[in-house]
Here is the input.
Amino acid sequence: MIYDYILSTGNINISGCHSSEFGTDTFKKVNVRAVSTANAFFFNPTLSSGQDIQLSVNGQNFFQEIAATGLATNELVYSINTGDFFTKGVEADVLDRSKFFFASASSVGSDSSLKYDINTGGMFIGTGDLGSSLATNIKARYASSVFSEYDYFLNGQKVYSGDGVEDAVGASFDLTFSEGVGVVTTENKNEFKYAAYKKNPKTTAVTGLVADISGHSFIEGRTNLYLNGIQEFQNSYLELFTGVNMIKLGFDAQISGGFKLNTRKSSLTL
Amino acid sequence: MSQSGLNYSLDLTFGNTQRLLVHYEFSGMSGRHIGNQVEGSLNYGVIENCDPANDTGLYSGVVVGLGGTVDAAKVFTTGTFLNNNRANLSDSNLKIKTTSNIPLSNSSALIDFEFNTDVTDCILFGSLEKVSDTINDQVVTGAKGYNVGITDRGKLFYQGFDKRGDFIKTFDSVELSKRNVISFSVGSNNLSFARMDYLNNSIQSETFDIDTSFIANNSEIFLGGSDEYFRTNSGEEITSKINLNSFCLFSGYIPPSAMQSIGSGLVGNYFESTASAATFKEQVTGYKQTIVYKTGVTGYDYQGTGSINISTGRYMRTGNFFNSTNVTTGEGDRYFIYRSFDSALSASGIKSFVKEEVGFLDPTSGYQYLPTGDTSAFDTLGLREIDGIVEEYAEQVGISGAGTVAVQLYGSRMLTGPTSGISGVIQQPLKESIIDRPAVLNSGIIMSVNSTNFKKDYIYYLGERL
Here is the structure.
């Protein structure tokens, strides 16, 4: 099992942990539950400013695409190509502006569990090759990108350097999800799409085979866990202080002792 | 960690500091007075109740850990109990004396503490004391105060006693960090726990129903111990492994939201910036109204627009007179007087003259004639036999070509201007400059305290471990 914890470390002082200058004012933008009703799911439009929603559907990452619009008779037609869902803008009625619209092939039902983060750094997608198109898309916005600045997803499952994805060339930043580091081959490459999200500032990732981690200071509530690349909900782990004993044996559940008689007398001088 | 910060936040929340009964703040103790308490033959250090408490003369805290001489008590207090600007409750508890007037059934506390090692169960605020009386051979048990502490699992708990006996309420929805700012408020049958999450600007709170009518006041309150705890026999016995940064006890129930504001002053630092220059802004004081009249045609003006020459279409007679010669004539004789047409007509190319036949009258006669009444003409007119000189001219006449007449042309032009009709009113605001922000000191709380101990540092996975 690969346990991958994304931790928001904040700043050295308190005010720096919710500072817009440091990009750490994300306390309302992480682990937000999508509200559902009548088989539809909604997000909080006051948190999102457009294409910035990193959505998890039952742990699988869904990519948000800006929909192309076409005008038919008395109707506005939306279409997406590579993404998994889209949101509507001010051209839509008020209720639709906060609603998730999924691609027809998406298996989102009323029993699905959705949560999302707001990612303002940038989100990218590519398909039809071994990963170079994703690298090209990233470099179009951030020319001097570094491999470690992004989280990578292969068909919605998070993959890691050397285990699903790697920097193909190194210095020039070119991605490959190909065989050897991943499951994509030249024969099946059209079956996959790759997504990348720029990591939020002041965060750190702890990835390994150990379920529990310690020694990394982080801000409570601003953490994510990916288990084998699938995102878990926050109720699957506890955020604690290392001094807490999770299990302690040999103690009775006594809460009250006997009565005491206090007969001390004293004088106080200041 | 500043008295001025707490003073500021209390003033901001309540308008005064009267509800603050007890305030222990342990930073900067090297420059502050350490009191002394004599108990029997032993001396104990005393931490003063400090500003901005309502009455700093009351509720000082006794360091009960080590009694001895005055010097020994002070050395223990400053050298052991006070450590790195904190009170180490691993070394001694703190006892607040003469607290009988503190209404524990309607009070609140704000505590800034941190664990110095692993979490163990302990008492933070211990005022619970069970008492029993025998009435008609019946033993009746009652209680004073309550305890607030931490379980081994790191959860805040409230231990009380009411008509149903002992009970514990656990604030189990919140995980504590190494350093925590927590509050509990008791009053009106409510118990509210809160943990201030200053990293996320939020409050984690939980409220329980309790019967506050069973909470009596107690004459002693312990920080770090309790007279009624399952593994100790006295409030002076140490239960905790925590360091206390500061402690506040208030009268009355204070909701968690207010506690968060007050706590920011407890944790953060008060600041005052130098006075900035006053800024001004314009303020509308009224309006000046100006009537605007419609514009339109007020009349017409005629101006020359050029000229045209109009051919008369007829031949015209033309002529001239010239070659003046003097001729002697007698008075009463007839001769011609010539006059030219005016120059304007001449300018058109048509020159002509007129002549008039008149009788000659001698200018020296004074034009006085004396008719005699005789039959001859001379007699009748009174003319005289006298000669004079007149001019005669040679005449030249002919027929000119078709003449033209120049005609000046005129055109009309509209004259425009305001008319009597009103098209609208211009409303122009009248302003004066007023002070927008006076040149005063800026003040507030800055949360520049190190955040490391407020953060979590351990994640425990709850799922199946494969």
Notes: Confidence is low (pLDDT under 50) at residues 257-266 of chain A. Chain A touches chain B through 58 residues (CB under 8 Å). Chain A is about 5% helix and 35% strand.
